[in-house]
Amino acid sequence: MHRSNGGADVTFTEWEEAKAHAAGDTRMRLNGYPAADHPGCGTGSALDLVVEDDELGKLGNLAYGLRQQLGSDGGHAAAASGEAATSLTGEGLDMGAALGDLNEAWETKLKTLKDACGQLSDHLDYTRAAHHKDEDKITGAMSSIATLDDRIK
């Protein structure tokens, strides 16, 4: 049995082999890794989920900088385009109305893009702060567990 996938033929056997390979691939496990198979898992190894605070900060700063640059550079022709549209319309040219519509659409898209950059920057700032709170909470809990464990011994 053959199936066509975007111009490439894939046999049913090949599909089954690919599924079996993916099922046996430990990188596909979402619920965890067996610690016996991966010594060091959970102790800061490459298998842990890691949030690099400096990377989040860099990305947030880039998004903020892009938003600022869009604000200053993105609208530099808005006034001139608006005046040209008014002048052309006043001369009875349909091109004036089209230029006005284009200028309005550009301003709308520019605002949407600036808002998206601002939201991204804000979200990354929030993520950094939430990560710090989580780290503090986990560190406190682990310290409490260690203290309790010492008392039990």
N-to-C terminal Cα separation, in Å? Answer: 65 Å
Discrete helix count: 4
Largest pleated sheet: 2 strands, antiparallel
Taken as a percent bin, the fraction of beta residues is 5-15%
Q: Overall pLDDT, averaged? A: 77
Question: What features would you describe in this structure?
Answer:
- This protein is mainly alpha-helical.
- The protein is 69% helix and 5% strand.
- It has helices spanning 12-24, 53-73, 78-90, 94-152; strands at 2-5, 8-11.
- A two-stranded antiparallel sheet has the order 1-2.
- A hairpin with a 2-residue loop joins strand 1 and strand 2.
- The termini are far apart.
Give a brief rundown of this model.
The chain is built from four helices and two strands.
Keywords:
153 residues, mainly alpha, two-stranded antiparallel sheet, 4 helices, 69% helix, 5% strand, elongated, disordered N terminus
What is the fold's blueprint, element by element?
Elements: E1 2-5, E2 8-11, H1 12-24, H2 53-73, H3 78-90, H4 94-152
Antiparallel strand pairs: 1-2
